[in-house]
TrEMBL record:
It comes from Gossypium hirsutum. The lineage of its organism: Eukaryota, Viridiplantae, Streptophyta, Embryophyta, Tracheophyta. The gene is LOC107962508. Keywords: Signal. Residues 348-385 are annotated as: Disordered. Residues 111-158, 177-220 form the LysM domain. This is LysM domain-containing GPI-anchored protein 1. Residues 1-28 form the signal peptide.
Amino acid sequence: MPNQKPNFLSFYKLLCFVLLTDVALVASKSTIEPCSNSDSCNALLGYTLYTDLKVAEVASLFQVDPISVLTANAIDISYPDVENHILPSQLFVKIPILCSCVDGIRKSVSTHYKTRPQDTLSSIADSIYAGLVSADQIREANSIDDPSVLDVGQNLVVPLPCTCFNGTDNGLPAIYLSYVVKPVDTLAGIAASYSTTITDLMNVNAMGGTSITPGDILAVPLSACASNFPKYASDHGLIVPNGSYAITASHCVQCSCGPGSRNLYCMPASLAVSCSSMQCKSSNLMLGNVTVQQSSAGCNVTSCAYSGYANGTIITSLSSSLQPRCPGPQQFPPLVAPPTYVTRDSVFAPAPAPQSDGATTATVPKTSTVPKTSTVPSTGSLPGFPPGGAPFGSLSNASTLMNSAAALPAALVIYLLAQLISPLSL
């Protein structure tokens, strides 16, 4: 009988060790994608404005082109002085970024922030960058010994989460959005909003269950149209999410991924200046032109397509094919007006599951007109990781640990209670 108490204490310590180990394993805030080379990819950040900001100010926070922010969200860039349009606080927008390979994992390190009076690492992380980064991550990235002392005007690297996964999801073209989970979100609601499945989200983020916690960062695969430009092209690897646009070729070419399509369609940005020739060789067709001719054998289709940008030259390719039926008119993603207010119904942010009341998000009137073209600036396996580039660890989720404890067999719980009570009864 005297040995029962030490045995119970040993078992209790072992149980605590297991639970604490679980906590350490889920400490990462976002999905980690291992990488072993210096390549990069296009990715997106889901960002919620912390205050009213001009389009140019939002872009400046991430050091990206203001027009690329608008085109990524299918906002009409033909509005006068659109870069100085004020976007409302709490608006959710997608920010296009370059996702690099740094120290063996995917992250974006091209964003820098200059500190202002009253800034703290926590306010920068939680407020200004809307939880896309943590104070500890900023501290580590900048080798800050004392986080309580920040010099005004100090230039900080802001490491931001991103993933590539070879630009595919289940073998189809995809671009990944880093999305900060909000209190109203459910995994089902996020999956439905982005036209994916719960299973796919769980697989991508290496999740053991459907529980999510506010502040977690999910990698959300978005259906996209991928290019097949040659490697020597400066825009090699261009990929455009479904329902949006991208600008390339030094302001000269606008590419879109129409609704329900996986075919990238590029056309001239007609107000651009100083562009190289956009005419296909041995043809009078210009970039984006398609001719169709019905015949008894089918439909002869000839098109002049964009094939990348290299050494200041727009590369075009002429192709002809016989198709069973003639293609319909090109479908463009619907444009929206620059947002001026925020309401519950949103075309920018995910909706919660049907049983939830929803959150304050943004909405703007839609247009269905063919987009206007305009002048736009360009955007400029490790040890311990699973093979094949699969995500390693991900969500900092306290409920995961609680669920694990709750899943202990009833018999084990009774045994532990018995072991606890037994010595006390002596």
